[in-house]
Specification:
Length: about 300
């Protein structure tokens, strides 16, 4: 018996085997469903895993991915469940799901050596949780404008956590408003058009908004300060990058994270908002490469 799917306007496609055959990248079937990923670079290079944020899928690493592969790294980027071209399973979109997805993907790719992790925004919470649970599997950690330090949710997003209210709200605001809210995280408005064109296609597949609502309701971007403090007690090197014009997770909160992770090397990125590596790749990419190369 087919389960009821709330009819969100604009979600008119099904992400199935036929759809996957026409989509770029690679797919791996994991315990939660199919994960869309891209793995490139020298097979003998250190593996760097890039984890995106709340709703913007792996294209957010388009400026980072080739820079790291050119520097000699083996680089993995993937779509979290519910985003991009990964499946939208009918599961709780919580910390457990995202930890299991990353663990399953590394296992399926036969990765046995410690990896380097780079997490953006909510992806910072995902990778921090992974480090906390599996410290032996991580060599280095980079956090970019990480969530989990105070609530990043607007009033509308907090309302969306309420049963049925969220479905109605997400239906009323429509795809255009959601896209505009995501694009507003850019400080450099010249990037908006390209960003919007890359973001829009995922919204057509059923289950996208359901996944976002479930993520909000299961508090994945909760206060993760205790998790960050556990990382601070480890010997894992950490790089902290933050856009000075970030108003999603305000720049001023970097002090809190520096106290929690005293070994973190902090680098402010001038003239960038919530996704500084996308807006200022010429600044961020060398910082990442230098950090990953240090022994």
């Amino acid at each position: 018996m087919r389960r009821f799917e709330f009819p969100f306007p604009g979600e008119c496609k099904t992400l199935d085997a036929r759809a996957r055959a026409d989509l770029p990248g690679q797919f791996m079937r994991l315990s939660g469903g199919y994960t869309h990923y891209e793995l490139e670079g020298s097979p003998s290079g250190q593996l760097v895993v890039l984890v995106h944020g709340f709703s913007v899928p792996q294209f957010i690493w388009d400026q980072t991915f080739p820079a790291l592969t050119a520097a000699g790294y083996r680089v993995l980027r993937y779509d979290l469940f519910g985003r991009g071209w990964s499946d939208r399973p009918r599961l709780h979109y919580d910390a457990e799901l995202f930890d299991r997805q990353l663990t399953d993907l590394l296992t399926a790719l036969h990765v046995s050596q410690p990896v380097d992790l780079v997490g953006l925004s909510m992806g910072g919470v995902v990778v921090a949780n992974f480090v906390s649970r599996h410290p032996q599997r991580v060599r280095r950690l980079a956090l970019i404008d990480p969530a989990g330090i105070g609530s990043p949710l607007s009033g509308a997003m907090r309302l969306a956590t309420l049963p049925l209210v969220g479905e109605v709200l997400f239906s009323l605001i429509g795809c255009g408003r959601l896209l505009a809210d995501m694009a507003a995280k850019l400080f450099d408005r010249r990037s908006v058009e390209a960003f919007s064109e890359a973001y829009r296609p995922q919204m057509a597949y059923r289950g996208f908004k359901r996944a976002l609502l479930s993520t909000l309701r299961h508090d994945v971007m909760r206060d993760a300060l205790d998790t960050y403090r556990r990382i601070g007690a480890l010997s894992i090197p950490v790089l902290l990058l933050w856009g000075t014009e970030d108003h999603t997770v305000p720049f001023e909160r970097h002090h809190i994270l520096q106290e929690a992770i005293p070994q973190a090397a902090f680098r402010p990125i001038e003239g960038a908002g919530h996704i500084p590596h996308y807006e200022q790749p010429g600044v961020v990419n060398p910082l990442l490469v230098d950090f990953l190369r240090n022994d």
